Amino acid sequence: VEFLYCDLASMKSIRQFVQRFRAKNCPLHVLVNNAGVMLVPEGKTEDGFEEHFGLNYLGHFLLTNLLLDTLKQSGTHSHSARIITVSSATHYVGKLHLNDLQSRCSYSAHGAYAQSKLALVLFTYRLQHLLTANGSHVTANVVDPGVVNTELYKHVFWVVKVVKWMTAWLVFKTPEEGASTTIYAAVSPEMEGAGGCYLYNEERTKSADVTYDEELQKRLWTESCKMVGISDEASRLP
């Protein structure tokens, strides 16, 4: 195991990480987008993005796009490279505000978190469409890990923390259990060549209806490219 530092809340750090990784000339067979914050007080990343949207979504969007060439070179006809993005069941109640992705008009920690998780699902489906259109041997899937007992809940109300402490053994998954679907998506032979799936408990299931809106997927992708400062090559594809 080798550690390379990358701060997903910093576009500069992401770009520096990709440069360091590329310099090693290593193949990249699996990319798991798993960083996240939840229900944090209103704040901004160093690039001025609302923290949930900037870290949970835009950081992964930029990282994935900058690593796409390496992923495409690493995948083969019999063994596709795999991109796994961790979302949440919260996306089912999320709303994407394309005119206010930074939640500047009205900030709600719950709303901002749900929007970031919804954006990750839309991004995954659009990414898979583009990978298929290019004939790339790379798949993109999105995972719902379930309710997992981690430090992600440190910003919830104290009442929720008490309930969590009392019921964790019954309701919450352990981190190992929470990682199982991500690992399944990353290495299972059953997922070879399969992309554009929403996975929960190691099974394909249906995500929110709005996530299948291809026009919304395109619009979010285009806007995301503008926000992170990369060219929207996908605009030339259907």
From TrEMBL:
One of its GO terms (molecular function) is oxidoreductase activity. Its EC number is 1.1.1.441. It is found in: Lipid droplet; Secreted. Keywords: Lipid droplet, NAD, NADP, Oxidoreductase, Secreted. It holds the Pfam family adh_short. The keyword Secreted applies. InterPro entries: NAD(P)-bd_dom_sf, SDR_fam. Pathway: Protein modification; protein glycosylation. Its main location: other. Signal peptide: none annotated. One of its GO terms (cellular component) is extracellular region. Gene3D superfamilies: NAD(P)-binding Rossmann-like Domain. It catalyses: a di-trans,poly-cis-polyprenol + NADP(+) = a di-trans,poly-cis-polyprenal + NADPH + H(+); a di-trans,poly-cis-dolichol + NADP(+) = a di-trans,poly-cis-dolichal + NADPH + H(+); a di-trans,poly-cis-dolichol + NAD(+) = a di-trans,poly-cis-dolichal + NADH + H(+); a di-trans,poly-cis-polyprenol + NAD(+) = a di-trans,poly-cis-polyprenal + NADH + H(+). Oxidoreductase that plays a key role in early steps of protein N-linked glycosylation by mediating two non-consecutive steps in dolichol biosynthesis. Acts both as a NAD(+)-dependent dehydrogenase and as a NADPH-dependent reductase during the conversion of polyprenol into dolichol. First catalyzes the NAD(+)-dependent dehydrogenation of polyprenol into polyprenal; polyprenal is then reduced into dolichal by SRD5A3. It then catalyzes the NADPH-dependent reduction of dolichal into dolichol. May also acts as a positive regulator of starvation-induced autophagy. Belongs to the short-chain dehydrogenases/reductases (SDR) family. This is Polyprenol dehydrogenase.
